[in-house]
């Protein structure tokens, strides 16, 4: 832009400037000439130099020789210092009001006083990047203040418990007490949003990583204040005690374990200087001179921009000698300025750091221009000028530090979007580091990796930041003005563009590091530096996924940024020329613009990535256990270090195969977008509508969304490569590294090249460590948003219906709180959507899921390698799958989500949730829970029914997995597969989310494997008995204490739900396999009868109805939705199933009526059955498939007839008892366990006798004799004659 270069201030005599205004842009060609020249005899060079150095007119005498750097330095020394005498004045660094304890009194360096440190505070990076390695550590600075207004800054590297402030020397530091815990000790803690002076009081805002906290003390007004990113948090403490010289307030900090921060007492410029407050450490004396010299340099560069304008009047003025050309002056003037600058820096120790972070960085930013179009040409000339001096390397090192620090602390500002946040620092860093000399300088620095992490950092907003970024909030159903919706659309779109710009520059920087070849011997391959950095990051962040991460882990945003960079490279391609043939691992003629994850065809993966125990994998668990354990049990053979190869989609049939090179393409290679037109025009309206149900399944979205897409629609839009329609390309072409060395293609070091498979492996671990917590937090906010909106709507309803003024007032106050909560959740959800759920990220994650699932399925065929697969492979692919499944907006409709690319996921989960090779029970639970979630929705259940592995292996695997740990997910799966098949449902197993196919398969599995079904049934009886016992005990505790605790209420509610689900599964067994209870031994029937009587007894007689209802009432649910009918219905269904089966089977059967009658508690049983008959079933069981009146009457009639038979049987038993004359004599041959059957079996070897029924039942759970505890080898059944 020409007019940008013409905005020149402080015009001096002799300089003619054409001010090109709006008239020129409109094409009028009018210009206005401003000239202070007094005649045609003026010398152009002298007058131009006067302007550059801001000297009065005719200060510079006529030059007798061509201009050179010596002449320029002479002008600076003679004239420049003459008219700017303050630049040569040495400032006294001993500031009044500050006392410094320092070994070198001349330097007056402010740092930590080592003798004050309590705990374990370590310096991560000199001078003052600190980290606590003790539970609680405190320290003071070596300087105190007693009068005046002072400040220091703290940059937060973590955001946990830190107490920052001021303390006197008499304040004690201990393992439990620090800053703010004593008199004359004052601190701010943004984690707990409190201020501390012996006691805590609410104050300030919550802080986040990257915040810069200004700690200010005003001893003139006796006040202490704190600032967050330059914004005042208000006066924290007033009336603080006055001090005397030498006994003042020291800057002091306290850090809990693992907390990290960087202190700045003034050794570098403040990030957010506060007017009126001075740094404790004075700036170097060379600051003013350096600042003025850089201003002179800028005035020189503006002459070049003036010439670029190519204005005819300027050319005429040059011919008239009104001013000299830029090319004539640039080299001597720039050389002279640099020489004077470096002379001043070398004369003042420690000044290079201050100048590099402050004046020099500001100068570079001004040259480069903060916003595009960036001035690459001018910046390159400036860098060339500085690089001619060896001293400039020190400045550039500090510029790297300043740019890295700026990336960590820069916040998004709505008015600056899309070039906001860390964009400016990253853009400048990328251009500077495109020079191999400067890249080498950075790489050789001791802080290379630490600075690289800073460049990849990204500051996230807190609640107050989001209020500024998204001032207007709207959600479906809200009563906000329509302008709020439009405003939210605009702001979120702008923020999304800003995030994309930052991510784009992070990718550019990583490309530069990848293609950098370090100047070492032997020659390294491209990518070696990036690989080392990546491995060290992974090594450093071991344990980052723990609840209490160890000290030293990286900022989470670093892991997220690295993941995004690698995902983009693997999904969208590198797109930076042939140099990336090395990074891709081959020089084949493959299509380079198709990402690794989307190439399809022949796939391969090096098994060595699993079989090696690299340092960053030392503590990582494998599927088969720890690495050291596997080396002993499954030692690695030399021939196993091979490459695993397979054809994409080889597990599928040719007709149904979905692959990148097949006829039917996967979802990730489609430009298909659900309702893309509306989404692109009005994204927030669409996103917000889905947000309320985001915590629910895709199946619960509106039906038209699922119907909009079918296979034919998808295939019409298939592309051969991933769509980049939403990919923000660089505004300017990527500038590859200058003077890059290219290795010969036959280099012997190609084997050391960074492979894409390595990047994929690292990406999965980065997801596990960095992305998974973010998605978990996003899911939490989406769930909170849904709940808050429901609560707000309920409050609005109550306000409309209320007629009492006081009640309305209280409801309106509650509504205000609810509304604030909703707005906060909507803002956070919007932020997570635009930062985590970009379209290209969803596409890449889907492709990665496909790739890894197929790899796992292939590896599962090779036991020796499968057990070495890291656990995070499985955890990441499952978590990523469900993140995409629940993403809002959805990536694709649920109808094709699995079908069009992830059928292998179903194959893997159903064949490995009970895989003995997987040692971790948590991983098996994870797979079971995935199945449990998916089978409850019709779209996903269809994928299971079409999957051969699911139909062949899942039924038996579910039965065998029903053990002490996995019974909850197995119960949920079986229940969902059989939904609608029990009492109270009219469709008999044909519910919208049930599977007739799997019901049939489960029945066949039970019948075909009697031993498996017997073990399953035994565990089912035991688990249901335990659950009802726990429930009754919890209810009784509440009943005895006359109060309901929240924890007890939640516990009762959960256990009751589990009991109902178990009872439904038992009901399914009686319906599908009734012969297990009616035929053969009556053990199962007896246990079933005992269980029914036990439940009826506890539900009807032992529990107070009011306590029962209160214990199960859940927030947001009415009492009608949770009642006794939920457990009574399956009990009624069990009895009806057995009655129906006994009526059609003519073979000899166990007597159901006799089984109940023999329980010797006829009163309880009859009362229970009467309760079942009189219960209001229609009002209790509600749902999509509840029964109608005719079905109810028919079933109740059966129950009533059974009740009459039971009464008759009980009366008959009473008559027989009276006829025998009371209690019968005890028979010595009766079983001493049940006292009902004869003892007809004995244990071997101990020979203890009992009835065969009791022995068989006992051996189901214990293999020892119940008399002497001897291990039972055999049970011998005696025949009737011998008995």
Automatic annotation (TrEMBL):
The protein's enzyme class: transferase
Positions of region (Disordered): 713-732
EC number: 2.3.2.27
Domain RING-type residues, every copy: 1231-1265
Keyword Zinc-finger: yes
B30.2/SPRY domain residues: 67-270
PANTHER family, per the entry: E3 UBIQUITIN-PROTEIN LIGASE RNF123, RING FINGER AND SRY DOMAIN-CONTAINING
Designated name of the protein: RING-type E3 ubiquitin transferase
Organism for this UniProt entry: Penstemon davidsonii
């Amino acid at each position: 832009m020409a007019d940008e270069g013409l905005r020149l201030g402080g015009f001096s005599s002799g300089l003619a400037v054409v001010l090109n205004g709006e008239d020129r842009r409109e094409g009028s060609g009018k210009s206005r000439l401003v000239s202070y020249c007094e005649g045609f005899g003026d010398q152009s060079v002298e007058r131009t130099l006067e302007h550059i150095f801001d000297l009065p007119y005719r200060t510079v005498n006529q030059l007798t020789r061509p201009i050179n750097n010596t002449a320029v330095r002479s002008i600076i020394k003679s004239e420049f210092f003459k008219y700017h005498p303050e630049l040569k004045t040495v400032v006294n660094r001993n500031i009044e009001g500050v006392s410094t304890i320092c070994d070198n009194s001349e330097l007056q360096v402010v740092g930590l006083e080592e003798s004050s440190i309590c705990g374990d505070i370590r310096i991560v990076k000199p001078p003052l990047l600190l980290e606590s390695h003790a539970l609680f550590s405190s320290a003071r600075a070596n300087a105190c203040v007693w009068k005046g207004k002072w400040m220091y800054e703290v940059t937060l590297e973590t955001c946990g418990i830190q107490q920052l402030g001021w303390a006197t020397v008499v304040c004690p530091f201990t393992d439990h007490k620090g800053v703010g815990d004593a008199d004359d000790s004052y601190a701010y803690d943004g984690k707990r949003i409190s201020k501390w002076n012996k006691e805590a009081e609410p104050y300030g805002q919550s802080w986040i990583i990257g915040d810069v906290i200004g700690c200010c003390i005003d001893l003139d007004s006796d006040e202490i204040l704190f600032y967050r990113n330059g914004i005042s948090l208000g006066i924290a403490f007033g009336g603080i005690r006055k001090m005397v010289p030498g006994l003042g307030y020291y800057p002091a900090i306290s850090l809990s374990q693992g907390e990290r921060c960087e202190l700045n007492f003034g050794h570098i410029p403040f990030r957010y200087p506060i007017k009126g407050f001075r740094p404790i450490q004075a700036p170097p004396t060379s600051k003013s001179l350096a600042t003025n010299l850089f201003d002179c340099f800028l005035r020189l560069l503006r002459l070049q921009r003036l010439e670029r304008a190519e204005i005819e009047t300027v050319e005429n003025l040059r011919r008239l000698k009104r001013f000299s050309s830029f090319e004539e002056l640039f080299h001597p003037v720039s050389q002279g300025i640099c020489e004077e600058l470096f002379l001043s820096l070398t004369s003042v120790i420690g000044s290079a750091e201050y100048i590099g972070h402050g004046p020099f960085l500001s100068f570079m930013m001004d040259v480069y221009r903060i916003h595009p179009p960036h001035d690459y040409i001018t910046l390159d000339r400036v860098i060339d000028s500085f690089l001619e001096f060896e001293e400039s390397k020190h400045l550039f090192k500090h510029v790297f530090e300043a740019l890295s620090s700026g990336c960590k602390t820069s916040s998004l500002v709505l008015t600056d979007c899309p070039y906001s946040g860390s964009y400016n620092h990253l853009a400048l860093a990328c251009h500077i580091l495109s020079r191999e000399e400067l890249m080498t300088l950075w790489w050789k620095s001791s802080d290379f990796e630490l600075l690289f992490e800073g460049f990849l950092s990204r500051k996230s907003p807190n609640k107050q930041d989001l209020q500024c970024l998204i001032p207007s909030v709207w959600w479906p159903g809200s009563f906000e003005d329509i302008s709020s919706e439009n405003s939210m659309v605009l702001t979120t779109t702008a923020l999304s563009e800003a995030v994309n710009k930052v991510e784009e520059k992070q990718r550019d920087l990583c490309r530069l590091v990848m293609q950098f070849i370090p100047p070492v011997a032997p020659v390294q391959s491209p990518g070696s530096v990036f690989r080392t950095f990546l491995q060290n990051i992974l090594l450093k962040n071991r344990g980052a996924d723990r609840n209490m991460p160890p000290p030293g882990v990286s900022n989470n945003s670093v892991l997220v940024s690295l993941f995004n960079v690698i995902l983009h490279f693997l999904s969208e391609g590198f797109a930076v020329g042939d140099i990336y043939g090395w990074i891709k691992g081959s020089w084949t003629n493959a299509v380079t613009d198709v990402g690794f994850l989307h190439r399809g065809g022949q796939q391969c993966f090096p098994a060595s990535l699993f079989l090696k125990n690299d340092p960053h994998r030392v503590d990582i668990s494998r599927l088969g256990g720890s690495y050291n354990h596997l080396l002993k049990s499954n030692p690695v053979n030399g021939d196993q270090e091979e490459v695993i190869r397979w054809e994409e989609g080889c597990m599928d049939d040719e007709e149904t195969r979905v692959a990148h090179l097949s006829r039917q393409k996967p979802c990730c290679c489609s430009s298909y977008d659900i309702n893309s037109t509306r989404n692109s025009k009005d994204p927030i309206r669409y996103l917000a509508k889905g947000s309320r149900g985001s915590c629910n399944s895709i199946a619960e979205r509106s039906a038209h969304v699922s119907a909009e897409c079918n296979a034919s629609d998808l295939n019409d839009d298939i592309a051969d490569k991933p769509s980049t329609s939403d990919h923000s390309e660089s505004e300017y072409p990527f500038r590859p590294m200058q003077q890059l060395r290219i290795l010969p293609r036959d280099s012997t070091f190609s084997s050391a090249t960074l492979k894409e498979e390595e990047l994929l492996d690292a990406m999965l671990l980065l997801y596990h460590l960095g992305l998974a917590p973010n998605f978990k937090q996003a899911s939490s906010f989406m769930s909170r948003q849904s709940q808050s909106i429901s609560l707000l709507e309920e409050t609005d309803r109550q306000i409309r219906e209320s007629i009492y003024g006081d009640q309305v007032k209280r409801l309106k106050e509650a509504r205000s709180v609810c509304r604030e909560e909703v707005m906060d959740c909507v803002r956070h959800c919007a932020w997570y959507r635009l930062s985590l759920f970009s379209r290209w990220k969803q596409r890449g994650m889907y492709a990665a899921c496909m790739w890894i699932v197929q790899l796992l399925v292939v590896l599962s065929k090779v036991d020796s390698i499968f057990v070495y697969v890291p656990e995070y492979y499985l955890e990441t692919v499952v978590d990523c799958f469900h993140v995409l499944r629940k993403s809002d907006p959805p990536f694709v409709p649920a109808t094709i989500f699995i079908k069009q690319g992830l059928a292998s996921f179903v194959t893997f989960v159903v064949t490995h949730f009970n895989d003995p090779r997987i040692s971790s029970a948590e991983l098996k639970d994870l797979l079971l829970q995935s199945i449990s979630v998916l089978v409850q929705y019709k779209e996903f259940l269809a994928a299971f029914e079409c999957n051969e592995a699911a139909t062949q292996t899942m039924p038996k695997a579910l039965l065998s997995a029903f053990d002490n740990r996995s019974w909850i997910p197995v119960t949920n799966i079986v229940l969902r597969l059989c939904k609608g098949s029990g009492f109270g449902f009219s469709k008999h197993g044909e519910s919208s989310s049930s599977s007739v196919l799997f019901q049939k398969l489960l029945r066949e599995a039970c019948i075909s494997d009697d031993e498996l079904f017997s073990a399953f049934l035994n565990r089912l009886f035991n688990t249901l008995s335990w659950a009802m016992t726990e429930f009754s005990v919890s209810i009784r505790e509440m009943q005895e204490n006359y109060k309901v605790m929240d924890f007890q209420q939640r516990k009762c509610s959960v256990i009751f739900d589990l009991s109902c689900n178990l009872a439904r599964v038992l009901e399914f067994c009686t319906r599908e396999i009734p012969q297990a209870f009616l035929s053969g031994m009556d053990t199962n029937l007896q246990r079933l009868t005992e269980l029914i009587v036990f439940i009826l007894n506890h539900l009807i007689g032992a529990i107070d109805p009011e306590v029962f209802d209160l214990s199960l009432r859940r927030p947001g649910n009415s009492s009608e939705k949770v009642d006794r009918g939920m457990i009574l219905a399956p009990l009624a269904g069990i009895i009806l199933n057995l009655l129906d089966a006994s009526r059609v089977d003519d073979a000899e059967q166990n007597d159901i009526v006799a089984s109940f009658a023999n329980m010797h508690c006829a009163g309880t049983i009859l009362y229970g059955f009467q309760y079942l008959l009189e219960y209001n079933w229609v009002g209790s069981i509600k749902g999509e498939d509840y029964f109608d009146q005719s079905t109810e009457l028919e079933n109740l009639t059966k129950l009533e007839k059974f009740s009459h038979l039971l009464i008759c049987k009980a009366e008959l038993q009473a008559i027989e008892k009276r006829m025998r004359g009371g209690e019968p004599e005890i028979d010595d041959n009766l079983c001493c366990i049940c006292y009902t059957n004869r003892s007809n079996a004995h244990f071997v070897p101990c020979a203890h006798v009992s009835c065969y029924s009791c022995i068989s039942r006992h051996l189901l759970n214990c293999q020892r004799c119940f008399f002497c505890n001897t291990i039972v080898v055999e049970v011998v059944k005696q025949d009737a004659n011998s008995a």
